[in-house]
Amino acid sequence: MKLEATSRAGTVRATMLAAVSVIAISTSAFAAPKDAVQTFYQSGQYTYCDAKQLSAFWGISTWDAKVRAGGKLQTGGPSVLNWNVKRAQALARQRGLRCDYSEGGYSYKDAVALAKYWGYKTPWDAKLKMGRLLASGGNLHIRRALRAAR
Q1: Cβ atoms of residues 138 and 103 within 8 Å
Q2: Residues 91 and 53: beta-carbon distance below 8 Å
Q3: Which class for 34: exposed (0-12), middle (13-18), buried (19 or more C-beta within 10 A)?
């Protein structure tokens, strides 16, 4: 009887250790993708539009595209990712995939400022241009124009 109780206690202890190990592995697995996504956005060069295009190019979800792109930035830098982004943009053009100005993280207020700066009659025209620029990798152009507009 005592042997059986010890055996059960050992089994319970082993099961608990296995569960703790799985939780530790799972936690670290979730931390890595988050870091990669932060790297993707914190680079300041890439937007959700880029992630959407990469998603179509690689045939994966937008989240997975951000994770993969951030990983490429972490391991190889922008030159490695830019090769993929250029090809993704070409595919997006072929497929008619468009980007919205908001996918660059811009607001209506930004569109109003850029409409004035670019000499457009309405913010709608600026939104369209911003979307076209985002789809072709022109986020830095938008950021520079926005700085100049303010």
Answers
A1: no
A2: yes
A3: exposed
Q: How many helices (H) and strands (E) does the chain have?
A: 7, 0
What is the helix (H) or strand (E) element at residue 26, kind and residue range? helix 2-42
How much is the pTM? 0.73
Buried residues in 72-84 as b, exposed as e (16+ CB within 10 A) = bbeeeeeeebeeb
Do you know the residue count of the chain? 150
Distance between CA atoms of residues 21 and 46, nearest Å: 36
Output the pLDDT for position 43: 87
CA gap 150, 145 in Å, rounded: 9
Please identify every stretch of the chain with a pLDDT value under 50, giving residue numbers as ranges: 12, 14-31
Q: Distance from CA of residue 83 to its chain's centroid?
A: 16
- Residue 17's pLDDT is 46
Cα torsion through 36, 45, 129, 146, rounded to 10: 120
pLDDT at 45: 87
Quote the CA–CA distance of 88 and 93 in Å, as a whole number: 9
